[in-house]
């Protein structure tokens, strides 16, 4: 017996092609709609057994808000997310929102159909290789580089950041004071605080450290 379902995806051609393929396999496709923003209301209004919900960015905040709304209003509807190769965070977010499964965009129609049938039966519909990859990444996460530039930037006040930018531009104390509208003694104090916070002994070292860590790229430009 065919499944009463909906296909909702931002890419209308993909949605219509998938809907046509599923119709040929005996399923009753209620609609193939493109606008993701209105997906939840459309599904709630039609109340299919299963909804295939497409997404291009499974790790982005708010991506699965339509799933949350669908499950809140129509808990009997099984939602299967259709998206790119997900990160563990993407899979977790989909299921946390109430999804019953996750299928890759490039999955064969037989795989999509298996996911639909599992979801309708109340089973988790995720390909074993996706789960293996997710668990592998969770157990052995890739080392994240230490963002020294961001860390150093957080140590400095906005005024000290401006001083550092001016130091890196080669300005001496007199030019820093004139550019910032402060007394030379105050400018000198700011420079000393910057050197102390960065753990360097000279202006040249401070400029080199800022350039090497990308701190200058993060700083707002000086007018």
From TrEMBL:
Pfam families: GerE. CDD domains: LuxR_C_like (cd06170). Keywords: DNA-binding, Transcription, Transcription regulation. Residues 4-120 form the Response regulatory domain. Signal peptide: none annotated. PROSITE patterns: HTH_LUXR_2, RESPONSE_REGULATORY. Residues 149-214 form the HTH luxR-type domain. One of its GO terms (biological process) is regulation of DNA-templated transcription. One of its GO terms (molecular function) is DNA binding. This is Helix-turn-helix transcriptional regulator. It comes from Streptomyces pilosus. The lineage of its organism: Bacteria, Bacillati, Actinomycetota, Actinomycetes, Kitasatosporales.
């Amino acid at each position: 017996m065919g499944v009463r379902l909906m296909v909702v995806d931002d890419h209308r051609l993909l949605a219509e092609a998938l809907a046509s393929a599923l119709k040929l396999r005996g399923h009753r496709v209620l609609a193939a709609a493109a606008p993701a923003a209105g997906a939840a209301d459309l599904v709630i209004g039609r109340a299919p057994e299963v909804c295939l919900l497409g997404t291009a960015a499974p790790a982005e905040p708010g991506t699965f808000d339509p799933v949350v709304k669908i499950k809140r209003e129509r808990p009997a509807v099984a939602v299967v997310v259709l998206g790119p190769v997900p990160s563990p965070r993407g899979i977790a977010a989909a299921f946390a929102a109430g999804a019953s499964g996750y299928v890759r965009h490039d999955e064969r129609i037989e795989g999509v159909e298996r996911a639909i049938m599992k979801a309708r039966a109340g089973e988790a519909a995720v390909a074993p290789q996706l789960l293996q990859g997710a668990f592998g990444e969770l157990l052995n996460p890739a080392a994240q580089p230490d963002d020294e530039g961001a860390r150093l930037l957080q140590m400095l006040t906005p005024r000290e950041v401006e001083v550092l930018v001016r130091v890196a531009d080669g300005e001496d104390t007199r030019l820093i004071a004139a550019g910032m509208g402060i007394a030379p003694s105050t400018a000198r104090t700011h420079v000393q605080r910057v050197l102390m916070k960065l753990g360097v002994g000279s202006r040249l070292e401070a400029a080199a450290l800022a350039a090497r860590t990308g701190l200058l790229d993060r700083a707002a430009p000086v007018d």
